[in-house]
Amino acid sequence: MKNIKIEILTIGEELLIGQTINTNAAWISEKLNEIGLKTYRHTTITDDKEIIKNTLQEIAQRADIILTTGGLGATNDDVTKKAFCEYFNVGLIRNENVLAHIKEIYLRRNRTITPTMESQADLPTNSTCIFNSVGIAPGMWFEEKGVIYVCMPGVPYEMKEMMHSFVLPELKKRFTQQSIYHHRIWIASLGESYIAEKLEKVEKELPKHIQLAYLPQIGIVQLRFTAIGDQQDNLKKQCVEIQEEVCSIFGDAVVGIGDNITLQGVLGDLLRDKNLTLSTAESCTGGYIAHLITSVPGSSVYFKGSVVSYNTEVKIEHLNISTQDVATTGVVSEKVAIQMAEGVRNLLKTDIAISTTGIAGPEGGTVENPIGTVWIGYADKEKSFAKRFVFEKDRLRNIQRAALMGLDIARKCLLS
C-alpha cells in the first residue's frame, strides 16, 4: 500500500487573529495517527472563497486526503460550501433527510425555521452527506481525480462526532490494513528530558514496528508506544513487556496505564478503594486542587471540601496557624504548610489533607522565596510533612504545577 498523504485545512479568520485556538487540527491528527494514518501538513486560511479554492487546488497536487473544518453554517462568513461548489463547478441539491433533521431541531427549540436555515440542507451534487447528529450543518465527502475531500464544521463537538461516526471508520476501512495498538504509560512529577534519558536504552532496543512518543503535559508525561503489525494480541503482549521494564525504572512515578489517565482520577480511585476522605487547604493555588478533584464524577464520596485561605488572617482564624510561626518564618514556609494541612484535616474531619502556600507570581518574590516558591503540605493520622518546590515565573503554570504536585504527593503517600 502506498504512503497515504493527509493534509488538514482549517478555515476561519478567528483562528488567524488568535481569537480561537486551533484545537481541531491537533485533535484530528491525533485520531488519524491512532488508526495508522499520518498527517503531513496543517494549513489555516481565512473565510474567503477565492483563497479556499486556490488552497484546495494547491493541496490537491500533493495530498491524497484533504480534511477541512470551518465555514459551514448560515452566516455570511460561512462560505466553505459555496467555495467547494465553485471549485468542483457543481450546483446544489436539497437533502430531504437533513432538512427534516433541521426542522425537528427548530421545532424542539420552539423556533421558526427560515429559508436561510433550510438552505443548510442544500449540498453539492457531487458530495456524499456526512450527517450532523449533534448540530445542523452537515459535512460533505467528495472524491475527485483520486483525491478525497472531507468537509466538516469548525464547531469541535460537531466535527468530532462526524469523525467518530463516519470519517474515521471510512478511512480505516479503505487505508488501514495492519493492526495498530497504542499503549500509554503516564508518569508524574518528572521532566520529559529526564524520562527520555532514563529510557534511552529501552528506546534503542525497541523493535522497528514499535515507536515511542513523549507527550508532556503540565505535571505529567504520557509515553505512547505505537505498535503496528498483523496481530493485535501479539502487539499488546509486546507492549506489556515494555511496560514492565518502564515501571521497574520509574517505580511509583508511574501514575497509570491506559487512555486519559489523570492524577485526580487515580487519587480518587485510591481514596475510594481505601475508604478514605480528603480535604484541602489552599493559598497560592486558590482552590485549583479542589477544582481538579471535583472534576471527577463521584468525588463527593471521598472529598469533603476545601478552605481557600488566601489571606493570612483566614489561615490563623480557621486553620489554627501559629501567629508566632507566621511572624518568624512567614506564611510561605514549611511550618505553615504543615499546620495548614493539619488544620483543615481537623476542621473537616478527613483522613488526609493537602495544603499549598507560596508565591505564584509574577510579583512578590524575595531572595529566600523567589517567585514560583511553593510549599506543599500533607497530613494524615500518622504523619505530617511539607516539601518545597521552586517552579517558574508564570503565574498560571505555577498554580497548575503546584496543584498537580499536591495530588501526586497524596497519591504516593497512599501507595506507601
Helix amount: 40-55%
CATH fold annotation of the largest domain = Molybdenum Cofactor Biosythetic Enzyme, Chain A
The parts where pLDDT drops under 50 for at least 5 residues are none
CATH class of the largest domain: Alpha Beta
> What's the helix count?
16
In CATH, the homologous superfamily of the largest domain goes by the name MoaB/Mog-like domain
- Morphology call: globular
Please compute the radius of gyration using only Cα atoms: 27 Å
The name of the CATH architecture of the largest domain is: 3-Layer(aba) Sandwich
Strand order of the largest sheet: 2-1-3-8-7-6
Major sheet details: 6 strands, mixed
Number of domains: 3
Instruction: Give the percentage of residues in beta strands.
Output: 15-25%
Average pLDDT metric: 94
Please report the distance between the alpha carbons of the first and last residues.
Answer: 51 Å
Would you report the number of β strands? Answer: 17
Determine the structural class based on helices, strands and strand pairing.
alpha/beta
Question: Your description of this structure?
Answer:
The chain is α/β, with parallel strands linked by helices. It has three domains: 6-175, Molybdenum Cofactor Biosythetic Enzyme, Chain A (3-Layer(aba) Sandwich); 179-257, 2-Layer Sandwich (Alpha-Beta Plaits), CATH 3.30.70.2860; 263-415, CinA-like (Maf protein, Alpha-Beta Complex), CATH 3.90.950. 42% of the residues lie in helices and 25% in strands. It has 16 helices and 17 strands. The chain has helices at 13-16, 23-34, 49-60, 80-88, 96-108, 115-118, 156-175, 192-198, 200-204, 232-250, 263-274, 288-294, 312-319, 323-329, 334-348, 395-415, and strands at 6-11, 39-45, 65-69, 92-94, 122-124, 128-130, 139-144, 147-152, 179-188, 210-217, 220-229, 254-257, 278-282, 303-308, 352-358, 373-379, 384-390. It has a six-stranded mixed β-sheet, sandwiched between helices. Helix 3 crosses helix 4 (80-88). The two termini are 51 Å apart.
